[in-house]
Amino acid sequence: VGLDDVPLYDEVPEDGATFEANALLKAREGFAHTGLRTIADDSGLCVAALSGMPGIFSARWSGVHGDDDANTRLLLAQIHDVPDDRREASFVCAAAYVDDEGEFVVRGEMAGVVIREPRGSGGFGYDPIFVPVGQPLTAAELMPDAKDELSHRGHAMRLLVARLAKATKT
Question: What is the pTM of this model?
Answer without folding.
Answer: 0.93
